[in-house]
Input
Amino acid sequence: MTFWLTQIFNGVSYGAIVFLLAMGLSLIFGVMKVINVTHGTYFLVGAYFGLTTLKQTGNFFLAILIGGIAIAVMGIVIERVFLRRLQGNDLGQVLITMGFVLVLQDAILVIWGPDPVSMDAPKFLASTGRIGGFSFPMYRLFLIVFAAVTAAALWFFESRTKIGSSVRAAVDDVEMAGGMGVNVPVVFSLVFGLGSFLAGMSGVLAAPWLGIQAGLDFEILPFAFVAIIVGGMGSLKGAVVASLLVGIIDNLGKTFFPEFAYFTLFLPMAVILAIRPSGLFGRAM
Amino acid sequence: MTDNGPMLKVEDIHTYYGDSYVLQGLSLEIAEGQVMAVLGRNGMGKTTLIRSIIGFTKPRTGKVTFDGADITALQPHEIVKLGVALVPQGRRIFPSLTVMENLLLGEKEGSDDGGEEPWDMDRVLALFPRLKERLRNMGNQLSGGEQQMLAFARSLMTNPKMLLLDEPTEGLAPLLVRAMGETLSKLKESKLAILLVEQNMKFALASCDYVHVLNRGRVVHSSTPEELAANEEIKSRFLGV
Ligand SMILES: Nc1ncnc2c1ncn2[C@@H]1O[C@H](COP(=O)(O)OP(=O)(O)OP(=O)(O)O)[C@@H](O)[C@H]1O
Ligand SMILES: [Mg+2]
Output
């Protein structure tokens, strides 16, 4: 029993990180139809920004915020200056985002060096919680709560605010949204900024658990892709459910069939897509 | 507002989709309070004309002026802010917005400079009472007729000076076509300028003040609706009746 609780708990914690990353990817794809290959690298660069902030200030929550903001600014600039010029040219956009992966990975080497680094969680989160025989790292519980609060905030933004309904309108039919007076360039910047913010922030949040090192970006990006494809592009509910599924399945897979780790993740995805091509909560496209 | 000048002036526009040359030098003018019909068979460029005005597909050359301002190079949302509203072909209701959200999306305060009562939720729902019961439904839960009412209603919520109507009667039952005609004549009483693109000639001629016939991206006939109704040659050559 305790064994299963631990497995599920770890899976849900990982799912929380995947969700934060996937939600940004999904928002960006939903509104702009851009497959942002740089998204995993935003996660990694965000973690480094967080690390530097933590070293300078000793404030972990400030580190999360700065990691998010730095990547939001970077994302908005990349969108405005590069992606917007290539609107409608899907292949060109993917190539540009691929190019930024290489540029950023090299920048990391120059600025932060090639060695893996670790980052400490604040003291009060570094303890171990205990319920009966089940013990768990407090920090992972914090990750789950953080992701849940973020999901609730995003839900409120999307379904209860005027800007949120403009974003949904742009996901439905971006041209017609402009034809109703929605300022589409501003919505694009907002969505790209928000998605990038989530990516940078999740990098900092993951750092005390997963560490920070080259290659982490492409280790985690496939999970985010699986989550939004299985959950359905642009669906918040889908991203939540699918991220949890991805986290749990991956954890169980690595425990029971370590040599087939990717297989256990991608097989369920293939099955779900065969039955529901637009994902669990996606609309037909 | 410019006095006496036309509300909309389209001057010699040439519009392409890639290499495909669709509007080949088209000009027209619409005055305040005027209903201008544009007729033409499938694929003659009617929707492209509307796309060129609202800014979806920019003309490669030529000029579009609205209410005295050159809007040729503006973005769609800027053109809408100036007072142009679109009721697009196929309605294009946002499926993941409720009816209420669809209405509020483009909501804009009306200026009551002309003494004309501005459009707001109450006035729009009084014109389309059917929508009142549907406010909480999602956009994709409406019947075709209700979607057309919503497309019309949400365009009025922007308090436009000009409406672009792209085949508003397409796919509507005869009873609803008649209701659409009554709505149009009510709107005509305000000073709204209306560009009405149609394939339904009977409906268009009954509603408009003036009519252009489009063939392969060019205006091939312009007259009053009465004159066109009597011109069998133009009707059979360009409208297939
Ligand atoms: N997005 C597009 N890309 C390429 N060609 C297009 C596009 N939209 C329309 N066309 C072509 O441009 C021409 C004019 O199309 P348009 O939609 O303006 O016709 P229409 O008069 O509105 O026809 P209908 O009565 O069927 O709506 C057609 O030949 C059409 O195939
Ligand atoms: Mg058309």
The pocket of adenosine-5'-triphosphate (ligand 1) is lined by residues B 17, 20, 22, 40, 42-48, 89, 199 (CB under 6 Å). The longest strand of chain B covers residues 20-30.
